[in-house]
What does this fold into?
Amino acid sequence: MAMAEALSISVVIPVFNEAATIGRVIDRVLECGYEAEVIVVDDASNDGTRAYLEQLANPRVHCFYHAINRGKGAALRLGFAAAHNPFVVVQDADLEYDPRDFRQVLEPLADGRADMVYGSRLLGGPHRVLLFWHHVGTRFLTLASNLLNNLNLTDMETGMKAFRRDRLLELKLGADRFTFEPEITAKAARARWRIYEVPISYSGRTYDEGKKTGWRDALAAIAAIVYYRFMD
It folds into this structure.
């Protein structure tokens, strides 16, 4: 039996103001080749995203809504709690990540090698060329995380991660915003999870096209890397 036919996965999509892309992202996830439940958590969007989600009638798509904007981490926690399948994949709502890469990300989980897999944008997969300083920032944050957590990741900040659901539910997560990335990394390292990393494609956006992370998020991530290593 092919791996795609054998696996049941839960795909968690946190979304904030992505009315232009959320429909296409959901369609691509549903067409990924796996038996997938799709869990979309709308983080109080005000651009029509919620209206689009509320009219969906697909039994494989389950939508949840925050009354106020709480951040990516809070949306993911809600999505993780709603997941039912043995493997959980995080998929961003902005088309920067391609659900066709689920196969690479899930393989180390499916064959029992890994508890968590990072889809790395920096391991040689095809990617759009842009934003030098964002690239530098990603490498710097990953280096800082590696130094404090004794890991050798290339892309701690990637938006495509996959987990064994049973291991994911063991962690007590609390980060509400983009500091989810350093938190899950530090806590997985502390729990001695078997962590793998695989190359994925990446179609990054410019800020004019809707990219949301900036230098303030980088500063928050640095603080979070230190906090989750020494003070949490």
Remarks:
- The longest helix spans residues 132-149.
- The domain at 3-230 is CATH 3.90.550.10 (Spore Coat Polysaccharide Biosynthesis Protein SpsA; Chain A).
- The chain has a mean pLDDT of 90.
- The CA atoms of residues 18 and 213 lie 14 Å apart.
